[in-house]
Amino acid sequence: MRSISGSLARRRSVTAVAGAALLVMAAAPVAAQVDTASATNGTIEACQSITVGTDGTGPGASAASTGQFWKCTGNASDERLQGDIDLIYNVAGWTGVGAIEWGWARISNDGGSWDGTWTSTVGEGQDQVIMAWYKGTGDYEGWTYVETQSGEYQADRETFGIVYPGAPPPVVVIEPFEPPGVEAAE
After folding, report:
1. Is pLDDT above 70 for 103?
2. Is the pTM higher than 0.85?
């Protein structure tokens, strides 16, 4: 039969060792962990239209222009996200309402590139909000960058984003909304 005092002493030793290990882990700086997510701020500047798109009728009988090619410069607090930006730009707008925009983009620099898609709304007063999702290549393979931009339509914009290891969010699928306990409208 074990003595109660010996068993209690062993538990205290195990508890002390586990506590010390937690203190060491908690004291480790997060910045030293290169595989963690981080936030970044920046700007999109000097955008220029390189190729004019095709004009026509877009969704909801809007006036549309598709297939425009633009080049911009991206600056960010995270060096991985600085570089040249190439984008395909599509727009559909309604007089007195605003516009929707969508397309594809690539941020390129010496370390690799970020390839992604984006969508945007532009208010009648020319305020614009853009949401973009990028997947890294080269040195950025296995990383995702999710970004929002805000500012005046076709002007320099402020950016905020999160870069993290892992896959981009799943593709958006629009399903009928069915609150719990309520049947879907037919």
Report:
1. yes
2. no
